[in-house]
User: Fold Golgi apparatus membrane protein Tvp15p from [Candida] jaroonii.
Amino acid sequence: MDSQDLNGAFKIANLAVAGLSVLSGLSQLFSGFRAFILGIYIIAFGGVIGLLEFQVPPEAYAFGSFLFSFIGRGVFYTFIGVAIHGESIFRILAGGIIFIIGLVFIALEAVPSISPPENMNTEGISIGNEEDII
Assistant:
């Protein structure tokens, strides 16, 4: 398979996770205090995932380096999938889909012929801890 085809598939998968996370977090906000707090976190995680598809800030690698590998992103997605409370059929399906996408990302770490997409590449990202030497 061409790497360009896979970049599109990864972008679709990541945006699906971001959208499902935000929507399920919003639907979880009014289910009690604990669900409200968890919903805020799920919305924030979905927003970060969506943002990383369009721009990668230099601080992202310093504070979230796990998001730049298949296994790190996969574990993060499975965590989000499990954290979504299944009190409605939408949240059950959203959590299950996110969980399965996370397992696929974890499995992709073991396939050497598949390279990470462009936004998961760390080349060209300045970590920000370089000091100017005069």
User: Anything to note?
Assistant: The chain has five helices and no strands. The chain has a mean pLDDT of 85.
